[in-house]
Amino acid sequence: MSRTTPIKFCNTSDRGTALEADRRNQFTDKELHTQVANHHEDLLSQATGIENLEGVLQMMQTRIHALQTAVDRIRSKVVEPYEKIVARTAQLRRLQGACDLLRRIIHYLFHGVDLSGIDIVEQDTMFIRRARKDIERQAQKMLHQGMETQNQTQVATSLQVFHNLGSLKETVEKVLSDCESNIRRNIKTALSVQLLPTTTANPMRGPGRASMPAPGNTAAFRATLWTNLEKLMDQLYATCGQIHHLQKVLSKKRDPVTHVFFMEELYKEKQKNILHCFWESLTYIVKEEFVSNANENTFIKQAFEGEYPKLLRSFNELWKRLEQFTVGMTSKPEQIQGPRYKEEEEDLKY
Questions:
Q1: Is this structure's pTM higher than 0.85?
Q2: N or C terminus of the chain with fewer C-beta within 10 Å?
Q3: What is the mean pLDDT of residues 286-297?
């Protein structure tokens, strides 16, 4: 049996396509060679530019990495403090809410309905009242010491306590009232005949005849009177300094919740400038007491009339010492003195 040999057929179209492709490849190679030969220098410069661009990109990548590292470092320094601030702010907000709630509860306990007889709260209510009285007593003592020594910390702390207790206005008014009472008492003491050298009672009672110095004691009487007046001027200066210090602290101290100055809280209550108000009261008290004592005691009146320049000089020296406090007054010194001061001069002069 014989093997049949397969017959191969040649496709002329495929051969033509292959030849055409070879021809075109040759043409393309020729054109590439021509372009490279014609633009050799341009291609080399572009290749060099690509290498430079790769260097620039590498440098930018390095800088970007350094920047990212710096950002991460800054983030680590900022994030933790920021989270602490957020936490502290939330705590402060809760504390303010708790303080406001406690303030409302205290106001309800002391100004609300009568809770006596309720066993569950009566004992705590009594404790709160005792604690309030003790706190008020200690704060009053601290305020008194702070004003005497002009210690801003003590005065500010005590005022904060009274503000928290809702009695700031009443406390300031009481301080002013106590200072006015002390001034009136000091004036009475300085002009008190009983405290001056030995005097003899005048049997003819009446205005200007209350008592007279014993014969031969006139010089000693006047010397003691003027010594007492010098001490009185020092006392007036010290008291004005305390009130000025109180006003300065009130003007600086803020409510920690509302951030309103304490002085503005007093203004809400239609409280005038306390130093101005106190100065008006002081001048009125001085006028009233000096005129009253001069009318009741002829010798004091004669001493004031005979040595009026000395009396006027004492008040002028006092005013010069008080000029440093006038910045806290709403009016000029002449306006604060007003007609009262002029009347006092006229009454003492005549």
A1: no
A2: N
A3: 87
